[in-house]
Amino acid sequence: MDAVLIQTYINDIAKRLHDPNKYGSTSVMIGAGFSKNAISLGESTVSPNWEELAKTMYESLYPFPDNRDEREKWEKVLVKKTSGKNVLKLAEEYKVAFGRNKLDKFIEDSIDDDKFIPGDLHVKLLDLNWNDVFTTNYDTLLERLYLSI
């Protein structure tokens, strides 16, 4: 996407945020990367990324082999299945093998939501005049901030 087109989109969003009655309202979709802006309450607490979660899922689905030859193959497949878009496919495998509830619980238990608080960018995001804020995140950073406003 070229810079002119991107700037056009940014200008359109800015107009809608500034005067939704005149230009129409706008919504925002927040993904997992935004949670990296949270403030940790622990000394070395870091929220896991999808690749780190995928490694644990892979190890649950495919136990580490005893055979040396099989270990090399296992490790090669580990790298492939826990990187890029393959992570979502692996999560789907985990869901099929163990069920949706176990997948949700695994992700929620891995996040340590209570060890993080919303950061400055969370505050700035919710200060804008969004019609809706959608998120795919399992943490409750945006919800907690919204309830405290």
Radius of gyration: 20 Å
Note the total helix count: 8
What is the total tally of β strands? 4
Helix-residue proportion:
55-70%
Mean pLDDT: 92
- The string of secondary-structure elements, in order, is HHEEHHHHEHEH
- Please give the order of strands in the largest beta sheet: 1-4
Classification by helices and strands: mainly alpha
Short summary:
The protein is mainly alpha-helical and about 150 residues long. Helix content is about 60%, strand content about 5%. It has one domain (about 5-149).
Description:
The strands form two sheets. The chain has a two-stranded parallel ribbon. A two-stranded antiparallel ribbon has the order 2-3. The chain has one domain. The chain is built from eight helices and four strands; from the N terminus they run H-H-E-E-H-H-H-H-E-H-E-H. The radius of gyration is 20 Å and the shape is elongated. It is mainly alpha-helical and 149 residues long. 11% of the residues are buried.
Features:
mainly alpha, two-stranded parallel ribbon, 8 helices, 4 strands
List the helices and strands and how they pair.
Layout: H1 3-18, H2 20-23, E1 28-30, E2 39-40, H3 50-61, H4 68-81, H5 86-98, H6 100-111, E3 116-117, H7 120-127, E4 133-135, H8 141-148
Parallel strand pairs: 1-4
Antiparallel strand pairs: 2-3
